[in-house]
């Protein structure tokens, strides 16, 4: 029996992954000469910003302070490009409202830093729907490690077996599987064909306009 919905943020609540890809591509290739193709940048976009930098450049390439600066700079570029288009994915507001009315607990489990989570929640004024918010700063290791989603469940006081995750990224679906949770996939940046290996996907949706919370309980 499902008692809680755990939402990934980027690509799942807002359709912004193309803006993350552009900001990362700019930082990695134009500022840091990583020489990655656009598809390679997209494939690296999961987990914390520091984890991404280590995957691309190796351990100890940057001082922690430098990684912090690069992370903030990347999010500044992302926010300034995306802000004019900032909006929830179609049908999500009504979906959240209905879930709240039905007593389903709601949480956000994101690899984003609080700077970005605040940017979304405060500009869209939707913070009040969520009883727990787990960001990059709240976990030792991000997705595909299960820590993010297990921490959401713990903060909500709900058994992981009674949670379902909403995700857009294969590595996020993997994180949910590692946490023992099923997943609803929102096909924003990643197509259905990219999720073939995951047995914990129970549904694919383009947006929330034809769904209601009871479909996933
Ligand atoms: O876990 P979420 O909400 O999908 O966020 C993931 C993204 O968050 C962004 O802030 C990172 O810069 C991206 O690299 C990462 O992919």
Protein model, in words:
By secondary structure, the protein is α/β, with parallel strands linked by helices. It has two domains: 4-16 and 87-216, HAD superfamily/HAD-like (Rossmann fold, 3-Layer(aba) Sandwich), CATH 3.40.50; 17-84. 41% of the residues lie in helices and 12% in strands. It is built from eight helices and six strands. The chain has helices at 17-31, 38-44, 49-57, 64-82, 92-101, 114-124, 147-156, 170-178, and strands spanning 4-7, 105-109, 132-134, 163-167, 182-186, 201-205. α6 links the parallel β2 (105-109) and β3. α1 packs across α4 (64-82). The N and C termini lie close together (6 Å). The model has no long low-confidence stretch (mean pLDDT 98). It binds 6-O-phosphono-beta-D-glucopyranose.
Q: What gap, in angstroms, lies between the N and C termini? A: 6 Å
Based on Cα principal axes, name the global outline: globular
Structural class: alpha/beta
Ligand inventory reads: 6-O-phosphono-beta-D-glucopyranose
Instruction: Please identify which CATH superfamily of the largest domain we are dealing with.
Output: HAD superfamily/HAD-like
CATH architecture of the largest domain: 3-Layer(aba) Sandwich
Number of strands: 6
Number of helices: 8
The CATH topology name of the largest domain reads Rossmann fold
Sheet having the most strands:
6 strands, parallel
Bin the helical content.
40-55%
- Runs in which pLDDT lies below 50 for 5 or more consecutive residues are none
Provide the number of structural domains.
2
Output the strand order for the largest sheet: 3-2-1-4-5-6
- Give the CATH class of the largest domain: Alpha Beta
Radius of gyration: 17 Å
Beta-strand content bin: 5-15%
Order of helices and strands: EHHHHHEHEHEHEE
Mean of the pLDDT scores? Answer: 98
């Amino acid at each position: 029996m499902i008692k809680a919905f755990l939402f990934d943020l980027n690509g799942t609540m807002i359709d912004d992954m193309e803006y993350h890809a552009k900001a990362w591509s700019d930082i990695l290739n134009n500022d840091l000469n990583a020489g990655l193709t656009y598809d390679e940048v997209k494939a690296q976009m999961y987990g914390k910003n520091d984890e991404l930098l280590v995957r691309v450049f190796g351990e100890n390439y940057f001082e922690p302070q430098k990684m912090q600066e690069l992370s903030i700079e990347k999010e500044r570029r992302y926010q300034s490009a995306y802000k004019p288009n900032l909006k929830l994915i179609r049908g999500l507001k009504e979906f959240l409202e209905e879930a709240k009315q039905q007593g389903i607990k709601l949480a956000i489990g994101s690899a984003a830093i609080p700077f970005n989570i605040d940017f979304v929640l405060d500009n869209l004024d939707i913070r009040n729907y969520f009883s727990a918010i787990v960001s990059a700063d709240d976990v030792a290791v991000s997705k595909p490690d299960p820590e993010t989603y297990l921490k959401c469940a713990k903060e909500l006081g709900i058994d992981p077996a009674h949670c379902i995750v909403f995700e857009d990224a294969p590595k996020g679906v993997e994180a949910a599987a590692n946490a023992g949770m099923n997943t609803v996939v929102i096909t924003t940046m990643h197509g259905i064909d990219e999720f073939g290996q995951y047995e914990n996907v129970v549904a694919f949706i383009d947006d929330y306009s034809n769904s209601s919370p009871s479909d996933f309980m």
